[in-house]
Amino acid sequence: MRYLIITTITAICFFGKLFAQSYSGTIYYGKSYITYQIKLKDIDNQINTFFTSIEMNAYEIPCLNTTLEKDSLKFYVISDYYTYEYKYIKQNNNFKGHLIIYSNENEHILNSFETDLIQEKETEGDVIKKQDLSFTSNGLKLYGTLWEPKNSIQKGLFFVTSSQGNDRSSTNAEASYFADLGYTVFNYDKRGTGKSEGNWQSATIEELCSDDINAIAFFAKATRLPLSEIGIKGSSQGGIKIPYILTKMPELKFGISISCPSGTLLESDLNYWKNTNVDQVGQENIIVAEKVQKAGYDYLANNLSYKKLNSIKNKYVNQDWFKYVWIPEENITKDYKLNFSGIPYFKKISQPILVIQGQSDIVIPGNSYKIIEKALKKSESKKYEILTLDNTTHSMTYLDKEFPYFQTLSPKYLVSITEWLKIIEN
């Protein structure tokens, strides 16, 4: 779930001296429910509110327009399509209130739910210790977070960086989840994102994997955990890097690859373009239009000359559907990542690996998991599992027609990973 992170915090008065207090809440709808946590922090004599829900892949999202006065609490959380207004009345140490959901498009009220806040006796800070650290990789200073559980099982989980400009915040919710299970966790800002130096756009997959490998070595040294007790997890572009890193670091214990394409990243980008544009282009034109779009991606990946691209472009530029095709400029920076495939490395790994694919993923080809499984059968890995999840997207969110207002993770996603980890850890 993507949130617009805007913080305008005011507090007229509050109940006693408040440094940090956490509350838990539940939203019931139909036969289902969503749990969440609210943390109130007194920072420089101002009340800051943060929203967390593992089910919504949200971790300490700063809330908008918080007011805490006399016996009431109010704040907003904003996503791409909806605004969530939380309003509460204080009752003893708890809050009683409701959630109102608005459409961002027309500000109409879409639904409302009763939802109370129950004060938690123990805050996350009492359970998980977070420490911001930095390390050097390929001459770049990169920044990450070490998550140390209160009751450690002396095993580590490392989050491989993913695609585009995502920083470590995109994996914070899962980092918190696995730390709560006893894992020592490390996630970091990919080069050129968050606080980290560098440029991810011009880097190759191998260069980005080199950063991951250096980060894993740093993680192991900082925690004194042997590589044999550390596993790695990645999604999408991160998922395609998992087998590569496992082959480069055979001492690692396991890998978890989420939403991993079976072919190149270029093929996945093309598949996503096709699925999102087929209605506009039309079934009768989609095959030809897809070939034209592929030429654009091939030029970006340095697989095609600009002369050849122009020739293809000029042939179809007057077609009605051409406006939905993206053709790069001649001087665009080439993206060699598009030519990378993880299949050769799936054939080489020896460690246990879990591969998960959503059946409603419009990014990677639908048969990716079958091709990956064939590659794994040729590997030395004796403990691999392929899992598909119904009604689940590329980002592991669940398509719930009963309650479309939140993007929640598939209910089987984290549970399945937890069960698999128990099997391979024994």
Q: Could you explain how this protein is built, in words?
A:
- 27% of the residues lie in helices and 30% in strands.
- With 426 residues, it is of the alpha/beta class.
- The protein folds into three domains: 20-119, Beta Barrel (Lipocalin); 125-264 and 337-425, Rossmann fold; 265-336, no CATH class.
- It has an eight-stranded mixed β-sheet with strand order 11-12-14-13-15-16-17-18, sandwiched between helices.
- Strand 11 and strand 12 (140-149) form a beta hairpin.
- Helix 5 (265-281) runs antiparallel to helix 6.
- The longest helix is centred in the middle third of the chain and has 19 residues, at 205-223.
- It starts with 19 loop residues before the first strand and ends with a helix.
- Mean pLDDT is 92; it is low at 1-18.
Topology:
Layout: E1 20-29, E2 32-43, E3 46-53, E4 58-62, E5 64-69, E6 72-78, E7 82-91, E8 94-103, E9 109-114, E10 117-119, H1 124-127, E11 128-137, E12 140-149, E13 156-159, H2 172-180, E14 184-188, H3 205-223, E15 230-235, H4 237-248, E16 254-258, H5 265-281, H6 286-300, H7 306-316, H8 343-346, E17 353-358, H9 368-377, E18 384-389, H10 413-425
Parallel strand pairs: 13-14, 13-15, 15-16, 16-17, 17-18
Antiparallel strand pairs: 1-2, 1-10, 2-3, 3-4, 5-6, 6-7, 7-8, 8-9, 11-12, 12-14
Helix pairs in contact: 3-4, 5-6, 6-7
In short:
The chain is an alpha/beta fold and about 425 residues long.
Radius of gyration equals 23 Å
Shape: globular
CATH topology of the largest domain: Rossmann fold
The count of strands amounts to 18
Total number of domains: 3
Count of helix runs: 10
Helix content: 25-40%
Structural class: alpha/beta
CATH H level, superfamily name of the largest domain: Alpha/Beta hydrolase fold, catalytic domain
Low-confidence stretches: 1-18
Order of helical and strand elements? EEEEEEEEEEHEEEHEHEHEHHHHEHEH
